[in-house]
Amino acid sequence: MEINFFSDIKANYFKHLYNKKDKVKKIFYSTIGFFAGFLNGLLGAGGGMLIVPALSKLGVERKKAHATSICVILPICILSSVMYISSGKVSIFEAVPYIGWGIVGAVVGAMFLSKINQKFLKKIFGIFMIWAAFQLLFR
How many domains does the chain divide into? Predict the structure, then answer.
């Protein structure tokens, strides 16, 4: 099965963005996108924790919401990384030790996502959000 990436984007995203009857969704998508980018740029994380619940609230299947979140966060992370590296706030060499195993973890996580029960995924995500909040507030 061949997937045409740009056709999929055009068919599934732009039809919602430019549908004049859906002005509320346009504003919602724009707002979520802005704050996801803002959180990612400011905190280095958090965009996905905003996108997944937002997509779920819109009725997107949980697994698809998680996968879509990754697709949204990728360009945001790349841009933030380039800005931090070019401004001298971080060196690419400081990140290198984490990249290889991070890629392995991403592959394993993506494969696991297709096999996990949606209710269990929701619980794992919720527990992770609570854990992250605890770490930020009390450490």
Answer: 1
